[in-house]
Amino acid sequence: MSECIFCRIAAGEIPADVVREDDQFVAFRDVRPLAPVHLLVIPREHVASLDEAEAMQDGASARALAFIAATARSAGVAESGYRVITNTGPDAGQEVMHLHWHVIGGTRLGGMV
Ligand code: 5GP
Ligand code: ZN
To answer: Ligand 1: distance of its center to the CA of 93 in Å?
Structure first.
């Protein structure tokens, strides 16, 4: 059994509030939401961080973006707007070493970037 928490969520071995999934990606609610909409999108395939994204299957990056956009649309924030964040490595404070995109919205997010 994998020790990676997001691999285990993707495999259905530990519960998560899944809002969208296909054969390559899963979107679920962050357990500690920072905004009314705070979702995490992960590839089912274990990739440790964006720094290893080259290891993803051909075309997976483009499909990831389309999946993120579809997830945001079904969460109701496509028109109001949202932010997509990928923490990569120690300076960004990456906690879970399985590539994930935070999809955050549902409120004015301020101007960090
Ligand atoms: P990072 O800091 O690595 O970019 O973000 C990891 C995110 O994963 C955090 O926002 C944290 O709340 C979330 N998280 C960590 N463990 C779990 C979990 O078991 N379930 C869910 N749904 N979210 C988690
Ligand atoms: Zn993993």
So the answer is: 11
Ligand 2 ion local residues (Cβ < 5 A): 4, 6-7, 46, 98
pLDDT tens-place string over residues 25-45: 999 999 999 999 999 999 999
The token pair that represents 101 in the structure block: 């995109």
Burial 1-37 (b: 16+ CB within 10 A, else e): eeebebbbbbeeeeebeebbbeebbbbbebeeeebeb
Residue 94 near residue 49, CB atoms below 8 Å: yes
Strand partners, 105: 37, 82
Mean pLDDT across 64-73: 98
Note whether 1 and 71 are within 8 A (CB): no
State yes or no: is 46 an active-site residue: no
Ligand 1 atom 20 nearest Cα:
31
